[in-house]
C-alpha cells in the first residue's frame, strides 16, 4: 500500500496516521501479496510457504479432523459433535446432492461435502482473528478446485453420454428452431468448455477478494482517522462500525459463495449424468 | 500487514502460481480423502443404523400391541364361556331342586295316604268287631228278655235265634232306608 507523502520532513510509515501528514493509504491489490516465510524446492519447483499456504493447511486439518471426530462416536443417541457432523452431512446430501442431482446423487456427497466445507472454512479464515486472510482471494485456490470439478464433470459426461454425444447434446438442445443452431451451437460449446469453469473460479475469487479489500479499507480508515477531536472520534467510530457491519455481511457472503460453488458443481455433475431433454 | 511484499514487485491479482494450485489441490485432497474414505461412510452408516433401530422399535411396538389385542380377545372369549357355564350350572341346579322338591312332596303324600289307609282299615275292623259284638249281645239280650216274657228258654233254640237275626236285619234295612 502506498501512502502519498504530503510533507517532505518524515518518511511515511507502512500504515500512516492522519496526523503524520501522510495521505490515506487506501489498500489496494498489494495487500493480497504476502511475503513468504520460506521457500521449499520440491522436484524443481519453488513452493513459497507463506500465510496463504499455512492457512490452507490449517483449513484442511480443521475440516478433516472435525469430521473424523464427529463420525467416530457412532452413537444411536448422538452427542453435540456427532449431531453437528450428521447435520452437516445431511445438509449436503439432502439440500445439494439429492435436490440437484437426484437419487444417484448420493455417491457424490463426499466430493460435494468436501468442496463445501473446505471452501466455507477457507472463506471464514477471512474474518477469524489471527488468520484474517481468505485464501480463496488468491486465484490459484479457486482455480485448483475448479479444475477438479471440471475434470470430474467432463469425465462423467463423456462416460455416461458418450464422448461425442456429450458435446453435441449440449450444442444442439432439443426444442430450439433449427435456424438458431448456427448461433447457439458455438455459444453452447463455449459455455460448456470455457465459460463454466472460468466463471465458477472467478465468482469465488472475486467475491472473497472484494470482501477482504472492503474490510481492510474500513479497518485502516478507523485507525487513520482516530484523533482527540470530535471529527476524529466520529469518523473513526463510523469507520469501525462499518467494519463490524461489513464483517457480518462478509460472513454471510462466505457461506453463500461456498454454497453456490458447491451447488453449481452439483448442477454440472447432474447435467453430465443425465442428458438434457 | 507488515509482511506485504515491497512495492514494485509484480502485483497482478490474476497471476496463477502453479505451486499454489498444487497446494490447494493437496489441501482439498486431504479433506476429500478423510471425508470420502472415513467420515462420511461412517456417518451414513450411523444414520442408517438409527433409522433401522427406530423402524425396528416401531415394528416391535406394533407386534406387542397386536399380541395384547389377541390376548384381550382370548380373555373375553374365556369370560363369555365362563358366564355361559355358570348360567348352565344355575339352570341345572334349579331343575334339580324342582325335581327334588317334587319327589319329596310325592313321598310325603304317599306316606300320608298309607297312614290314612291303615288308620281307616283299623277303624273299619274295630267297627265291624264292635258291630258283631253288639249284634250278638243284643240278640242274647233280646232272647233272654223274650224268654222271660214267654217263660221258657229260647236260648238253645235255633229258630228263635234266626227270628231275632231277621228282626235285626229288618231294623237295619229300615234305618238304611231312612
Can you give a write-up of this model?
The complex is a heterodimer of chains A (277) and B (178). Helices cover 64% and strands 4% of the residues of chain A. With 277 residues, chain A is mainly alpha-helical. Chain B has one domain (18-177). Helix content of chain B is 86%, strand content 0%. In chain B, helix 1 (18-150) packs across helix 2. Classes of the chains: A mainly alpha (277), B mainly alpha (178). At the A-B interface, strand 2, helix 1, helix 2, helix 3 and helix 4 of A face helix 1 of B.
* Strand order in space, largest sheet of chain A: 1-2
The proportion of residues forming helix of chain A, as a percent range, comes to: 55-70%
Overall radius of gyration of chain B: 67 Å
Largest interface: A-B, 61 and 44 residues
Give the amount of beta strand of chain B, in percent. Answer: under 5%
What structural class is derived from the secondary structure elements of chain B?
mainly alpha
State the end-to-end distance of chain A.
53 Å
| Main sheet record of chain A | 2 strands, antiparallel
Oligomeric organization of the protein chains: heterodimer
Amount of beta strand of chain A: under 5%
The counted number of beta strands of chain B is: 0
Query: Which shape of chain A, going by the Cα principal axes?
Result: globular
What is the mean predicted local confidence, pLDDT of chain A?
88
The value of Rg of chain A in angstroms is: 24 Å
SSE order of chain A? EEHHHHHHH
> Counting H and I runs of at least 4 residues, what is the number of helices of chain A?
7
- Return the structural class of chain A: mainly alpha
**Low-confidence spans of chain A:** none
Q: Helix segment count of chain B? A: 2
The overall pLDDT average of chain B reads 86
Kindly, what is the distance between the CA atoms of the first and last residues of chain B, rounded to a whole number of angstroms?
168 Å
